[in-house]
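Structure representation:
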Amino acid sequence: MKAAVAAGADAVYMGGSRFGARAFAQNPEEDKLLEAIDYVHLHGRKLYLTVNTLMKEQEMEELFDYLLPYYKQGLDAAIVQDMGVLSYIKEKFPALPIHASTQMTITGAYGAAMLKDLGAERVVTARELSLKDIEKIRDQVDVEIESFVHGALCYCYSGQCLFSSLIGGRSGNRGRCAQTCRLPFEVKKNGKTLGKKEDRYCLSLKDLSTLDLIPDMIEAGVYSMKIEGRMKSPRYTAGVVSIYRKYADLYLSQGREGYQVMEEDRKTLLDLFDRGGQTDGYYKRHNGRDMVVWKEKPSFREGNQALFDYLDKNYVEKEIKEPVRGHAFLEEGQRACLRLEACGHEVTITGDLVQTAQNQPMTEEKVKKQLEKTGNTPFYFERLEIQLNGNVFLPVQSLNELRRRGLEELEQAVLKDYRREYGQSILKAEESPAFVKKKSLEVPKLTVSLERPDCLEAAAESNQVGRIYIDAAEFEPGRWSTYADLCRRNGKECMLTMPHIFREQAEQFFDRYKKELEEAGFDGFLIRSLEEVGYLKQKGIKGDLVFDFGVYGMNRWSQKLLLKLGADELTWPVELNSRELGKLSVPGELLIYGRLPMMVTAQCIHQGTEQCDKSPAVLMLKDRMGKEFPVKNHCRFCYNSIYNSAPVSLHGFDDAVKALAPSSLRLQFTTEDQGQTEAVIRYFSEEFYQGQRAKLPFDEFTRGHFKRGVE
C-alpha cells in the first residue's frame, strides 16, 4: 500500500482479514487496516476495502461488526461481488460508497444501469470488454467506470469460474483460486492431439499491459484505471504504478499529440514480471491466439538489479511526507505560539511561557532548526517563518513539545474530515431480512435443460418432466415455435435458456429474432446474466424469469434482492453444501444431474488450436491426471464453455434432497446424446419420484459440492 501511494496511486484496494478475493495474501488485521486508512488520507489518497467474495448465510451475520470500525475510521468505499452484500451495505451503511466488482460480470449498459439503481457508484467492467463496449456504458449510464490496465488476466469471465472450486474445493468466488488455468493441458479432437507438443499452456493468458491505449481508454470513458497488483511485491507495485502515473499525466497534460511511450518503460514492465510476454487485452479485439502464453514460463530469468535498487530507494523505502507551512511566534513573557497549515487545514497551538534569556538569547536559526525536526511524522516544513520579540529563551524540550503537539493536532484535523459516527437508528439485526421461508410444493417439479436439439423428443416424451429449457445458443430461432409446441402438446412448460454472456452480439441476435421469440410464446427464460433482465424488460418481452445458479443467491439478502430484480424463481447455487442450502429462505431449483460449466470464456480454444470457422465443435482438454474436460464453442454468441470431466449426480441422496424442499429438480444435459438423455431422465424419474433404484446409466460422476461445499 505504501509503495503504491509513494509511486502516485490515487487509491488502493486492500483486503482485510476476511471476505476479500485474495484469502491467501498476507492481509492486515483490523489495527493495521485502520492505520492504513489514516495513512492514505494524510496523503490525500483513498482506500477501498475488498469485500468481493460470495457470502454464506452465517457470514452475513458477521459483516456488521467487521465493517463498522473501518466505516467509522473513514473507509472510502467497499468493492463487492455478492448482491446480498451490496444490499446489506446500502441498508446498514448508507454513507459508504459501493463499487461493483468485475466478479459481477458486467458486460454492458443494462447491467451497469441496474447496479447504479441499486446504489453502486462505480462499476468495474469485465476484462473482456472492448473500448466500444465501454463507450456505450459511458453514453447510457451515469456511473463511474473502472477498467483494468495492467496485470494478470483470468482466462474465464470473472465471477463465472468454477474450475478451481470443483477440482480442489478452492473457490475463486471465495478468494481461494488455485490458478488451475496456469496448468498444462492437452487439446484433443476425436481422440487426436491438436497443436504442438510444447503448446500446453492453452488456458494461461499473458499479463495485460495497456500503455499504448491510455489515450483511447480515457476518451472511451474509463474514469479509474485499475492495476492488478495483489499477491505481488512492493517493488512490482511501485514500478508499475509509477509508469502508469507518468503516462496518465502525460496524456492529461499534452493530449494525443504529445503522447509517446518510451521503449525503456515497456522493458521495465517486463523486467518486473514476465509470464511469457504481454498483451493489450480485449480492448480492440474479441479474443486472439497471441494473448495466450502457450509455452512454459522460463524457470529462471536474470533480475534487473539496478531497476530494483532504484525502486527500493525512490518508492519502497522512501517515507513520503506532506508539505507544511508554519509560523512560530516567541515573545518574552508570552506563551510560545505555533501556527501550521497543511492539506487545507490550519491549527494554532500555544506552548510554554517564553523566558528572558539570562545569557545568549535564542536566534531564529536555532529555533527553526529545532522545529524542523519532523522525524517520523507524515509532514515536512516547506516554509517556516520564525518571529522573535525580545531576548527570548525557551528550553529545547519546550520547542520539541510545541512542534509535537502542533503536528499531532494538524494530523487529527486532517483525519477528522474522514471520521464518521454510526448514528443509524436501525438496529444492528444482521440476522437476515425478515421474510419467511416459502413452503415449496410437496413434490418438486422435474425440469430438463438441453443444449442439443436432437435430445428434445426424449425429454418431451417423459411423463415425469414438467419443464424443458432449450438453449438459445444451439436451438434454431426459425424452429422455436415448433419446439415450444412439441413441449406444450406433451404438457410441458418450455423456456428459453439465455446465453451465459450477454453482449452486443447477443443483443443483435435477439433483436433480429424478436418476432420468432414472440411467436414461440415461451413460458419464460432461464437468466444467466443480469444484462438479460434489463434487455427483456426494455424490449417488453413477457415470461417468467428463472435466475440460474451463476446469478448467485448465496444468502437470504441476495435471494431477496434477486426477487426484487424480477426473478420469479431462483436456482440454488452449486457451491453450497446441503446444510448451507437448508439455511436459504427461498425455495429454489436444485441441480441433481449435469456437467457444470467450469469456465465461460471469450477466448476460443477451437480458434486457438485450429481456426475460427464459426462452426460449433466439441474439443477435449486433458489435464496432467488424465481427466478430459469437454469444451464447446458457442459461435452464435462467441464464447466457450469448458465443462467438468464428469457430471454432478445426486443419485442416492433423494431423502436429503427432499428434506431441503426445493421447488424443482433439474437434469442438465450438455454433451449427452439422445440415448444418454433418455436413460438419465428415466433413471432419476424412477429414483426420485417412484422410489425405484435401477442401474446407473453413466459410469463417472461427482457429488459436486452437495456434501463438502467450499471453504
